[in-house]
Amino acid sequence: MTPDRVGAVVNPHAGSGNAAELFADLAACFPDAEVDARITTGPDDVPVAASEQADWADLVVPIGGDGTLREVAATLVDIESETPLFVVPAGRGNSTYRHLYGDEDWRAVARQLAGGIDPQPLEVGRVEADPEIESTYFLLGFTAGLFRSALDNAERLRALPGPLAYVLATAGAALVDDPVEASVDVDGERLHDGPARLVAIGGGRYRGSDFALLPDSRPGDGTLHALVVEPAGVRGSLRLGMLARTGRLREHPAVSYATGERATVRSAAGLPVEMDGTPIPTPLSRAAISVVPAALSVAYPSG
After folding, report:
1. Among 11, 15, 66, 248, whose Cα sits 20 to 30 Å from the Cα of 91?
2. Which one-letter DSSP state was computed for residue 161?
3. Residue 115 and residue 113: Cα distance in Å, rounded?
């Protein structure tokens, strides 16, 4: 399929705030198509903008970070849209783009898409939580513990490049924060019960751009990947960080890893949680997470 209409959903506040420049680059990649933009002023605008573009366009393109992409994807799932999705990575981490397209520059991929699109299915995760949360779908994943604090630390380091800010923020949280208490079940089997530095459940291989947190995950595998990191001391934490950068996190004895279709996370004390880089303001005592296979269509170049 060659796209004749490309509909962008633009978050002008993402990353360095150069959304207008990125939209111009996107339009230049599709010289034979009509390229339209819907500019959002906040998350409440995204469902309407994404729905309108999905109804009109042959290709929907969020221009923003992982949070913007998650909001657009959730809308497409809710309206059961079959319009394929691409993303212009304009955030600070852009982990979903790397999970889907590797390290190739997005403009090169877009120019290939202009010549033809091969839609491929992609799973999403769904969360039912106590207390209830407004956001229920994710692409990258759901984490409790370390990364939630790292998001707050990274916000204070906005002057730095995104990947560097996330590395420093995560290191700081690992050294200062106390572990969380959590039990984790995957497909009814107990994976962990006790103190944990990090609980991560999802489908995206990368977090913070550089961390291969779920190294076995691949787009379209239709599977939830679950990881728990137990407290390992200062030296162990440094080793864990190095292994995560190289996709070898499972080699560390403090790491438990499982795959399945459903996972449940519980904590009597409540867990600090984030999804796809978006903090959840209320600590959760329970979260039931399931995979929704083939929930979205993702655009890859033909051939």
Report:
1. 248
2. -
3. 5
